[in-house]
Amino acid sequence: MTPTTGPSGALVDEQIERIVRARASAFVTVPLAVLSAPALAAGLRARGWFVATLDRAPVVDKPTLMHALYQSGRYPAGFGFNWDALADALRDLEWLEPATGVAFIWHDPDVLEARSPEAYATLREIVDDAHSERVARGHAPLRFVLPAR
Question: What is the number of alpha carbons within 13 Å of residue 85 lying toward its C-beta?
């Protein structure tokens, strides 16, 4: 693999399989080259997944995180921009149906983790809880796709 050609199709396909696997966790890490490859989002969309990039602008604290999630997840206008509203929204996500899964691609979660570790930890807890509840109710899976460290 060279920087000009990007990751191989087989590598991207392998990572897509990891993301869509029924028993995958809410947070899935993939090689950075795969995370940045247009084929990753295209492959997930081809399987019926809703795919959004979380950090089109830097996510540095709770307000920028909430705004990024609101925009990328196409949340309803009444979204409350607080932890409870986020937890409710991630458990629901009915406005994205009939998607077979929901993937938020997050290129640089380290910025939030470094600048606001409390917000990062709270987000992870909320996402893990929402993921578990969605799986238990038989709803489309929720994934945050991050770069492997």
Answer: 14
Query: Per the structure block, which two tokens stand in for 49?
Result: 């997944």
Distance CA 93, CA 89 (A): 6
* Phi and psi, residue 139, nearest 5°: -85, 165
The pLDDT tens digits of the residues spanning 97-122 come to 899 999 999 999 999 999 999 999 99
The tens digit of pLDDT for each residue in 61-84 reads 999 999 999 999 999 989 999 999
Report which residue type is found at 118.
E
- Give me the residues paired with residue 144 across strands: 27, 104
Report the amino acid identity of residue 10. A
SS3 content of the chain, % helix, strand, coil (to 5): 50, 15, 35
Residue carrying structure tokens 């709770």? 62
Is residue 130 within 8 Å of residue 142, measured between CB atoms?
yes
Starting from the edge strand earliest in sequence, which strands make up the sheet with 49-53, in order? 27-30, 142-147, 101-105, 49-53
CB of 104 within 8 A of CB of 52? yes
